[in-house]
Amino acid sequence: MSETTIDTQELGEKIVKVIKTIYDPEIPVDIYELGLIYDVFVSEDYDVKVLMTLTTPNCPVAESLPMEVEEKIKSINEVKDAEVEITFDPPWTQELMSEEAKLELGML
């Protein structure tokens, strides 16, 4: 397998790894485990689109967090371009958090 043919699933896993390095400023859990990432699309051209939400519409990092996600994804060599779209539909609730996040926050 040459370096130019990479599996989009493999790339998806790399993207998730990078996303897991980004933490919500108010909650000591990464944004992936918090359930803020709704979807990650990887096209055959290695363009990435992330559909994510914020814990609240007036989240203090509403401007910087999507930019950080975009920049970190773009830093992966295979990624050609990345775009982050913010949605509040459905709105984020604590139900979207992983078991790991709930455990971390003492909710289990």
TrEMBL record:
It holds the Pfam family FeS_assembly_P. InterPro entries: Fe-S_Maturation_MIP18, FSCA_dom_sf, MIP18-like. SUPFAM superfamilies: Fe-S cluster assembly (FSCA) domain-like (SSF117916). Residues 13-86 form the MIP18 family-like domain. This is DUF59 domain-containing protein.
